[in-house]
Design a protein that fits this description.
Elements lengths: L2 E4 L3 H13 L9 E4 L15 E4 L13 E4 L6 H7 L9 E4 L6 H8 L4 E6 L9 E7 L5 H12 L2 E5 L5 H10 L1 H18 L4 H21 L4 H8 L5 H9 L5 H20 L1
Parallel strand pairs: 1-2, 1-4, 2-3, 4-5, 5-6, 7-8
Antiparallel strand pairs: 6-7
Helix pairs in contact: 5-10, 6-7
C-alpha cells in the first residue's frame, strides 16, 4: 500500500507524526508521498525513510498509484487540490478527508459517484495524540478500507464511526470546536481567580493545572462525569455554592446548548 497526503499543516503533520511514531506508514510499511507547497512544514520530516515530498501536483510521479489519498487541505482550497489529483481516480484509492464542511456529496461531484470516500472530523488534541475523530463513509467504502481509515486516524486518538453523515455537523460543534471552549474555561477560571484576589500568574497556573488534571482524571476513570463531579462536592461546602450558580436554570447548560446549536447551524451553512 502507499499513501498520498495532501497538506502537511497542523492536522496533516500531526497525523504524519503519529503514523511514523507507530510504524503505520513510512518506510516499507506504507510509503507516503506528501504534497505540500510550504517547505517549512516538512522540516521535521526531512530524511525520514519512506517519506517523499513534492511542492506541486505537477511534480507527483507518473507511476504513483496511491491506495489512500488523505485530504488535509483547507476547505477553501479543496477544489484546486482535487483537480490536481484527478488522474489518480483510475487507481480507485480510498479518499479520506479531514476537511470541515466538505460533504460526501461534494466529493462525489468532484471525484465521481463510484469513489470510495470517508469524511472525518478530528480535533486539535490530535497534536498530542489525544484527538477525538468521528468518521462516516459512503457506500463504496469496503470493510478493508474502513479498517485502514480507522488505523490511520487512531494514530492521533480515539475514532468513532457514525452511519448518519448529518451527525458530523453536531460533531464539529462539540468536539471539533470543543478544545476552544476548554481553553476559554481556563481563561475565565483564571480571571475569576484574579477577581477573587489571586495574583494573575498563580491564577493562570492553577486554572491550567486544574483543567488538564481534571481532564486526565475523566479520561482514566470509568465513572460518569456526574459521579466525578459529585466526588468533589461536599454537602454544604464551597464547591456546592459555586455549582448552585453554574447549574442554575440560567447557568452553563443552557449557555452551552445555545452555543453548540449555533456552531451546528453554522456547520450546516458552510456545507451548503
Amino acid at each position: 500500500m502507499s499513501l498520498l497526503l495532501l497538506g502537511c499543516g497542523k492536522m496533516g503533520g500531526a497525523l504524519l507524526r503519529g503514523w511514523l511514531d507507530q510504524g503505520i506508514a513510512g518506510g516499507a510499511a506504507m510509503p507516503v508521498t506528501v504534497l505540500e507547497p510550504n517547505a517549512a512544514a516538512m522540516r521535521d520530516f526531512a530524511g525520514q525513510a519512506g517519506i517523499a515530498h513534492v511542492s506541486a501536483a505537477e511534480a507527483l510521479p507518473a507511476t504513483l498509484r496511491p491506495s489512500v489519498v488523505l485530504l488535509a487541505v483547507k476547505p477553501q482550497t479543496m477544489d484546486a487540490a482535487l483537480a490536481g489529483i484527478a488522474r489518480f481516480g483510475a487507481a480507485k484509492p480510498l479518499y479520506l478527508s479531514i476537511a470541515a464542511g466538505k460533504t460526501l456529496a461534494y466529493f462525489a461531484r468532484h471525484l465521481g459517484d463510484e469513489a470510495a470516500v470517508v469524511r472525518s472530523m478530528p480535533n486539535t488534541p490530535a497534536a498530542v495524540g489525544r484527538g477525538a475523530t468521528v468518521a462516516a463513509g459512503n457506500k463504496h467504502v469496503s470493510a478493508a478500507q474502513r479498517d485502514v481509515a480507522s488505523k490511520l486516524l487512531q494514530a492521533v486518538g480515539a475514532v468513532h464511526w457514525v452511519e448518519d453523515e448529518g451527525l458530523l455537523d453536531a460533531v464539529t460543534a462539540v468536539s471539533g470546536g470543543g478544545p476552544a471552549y476548554v481553553f476559554l474555561l481556563i481563561e475565565v477560571l483564571a480571571q475569576a481567580g484574579i477577581d477573587a484576589g489571586l495574583p494573575p500568574d498563580l491564577a493562570m497556573k492553577l486554572a491550567r493545572a486544574t483543567v488538564s488534571g481534571a481532564g486526565e482524571l475523566a479520561r482514566l476513570s470509568s465513572e460518569p462525569a456526574s459521579v466525578l463531579r459529585q466526588n468533589v462536592t461536599s454537602p454544604g461546602g464551597t464547591t456546592l455554592e459555586a455549582l448552585k450558580i453554574l447549574m442554575a436554570p440560567d447557568g452553563l447548560q443552557p449557555l452551552f446548548t445555545r452555543a453548540i446549536a449555533a456552531a451546528t447551524r453554522r456547520s450546516r451553512e458552510l456545507a451548503g
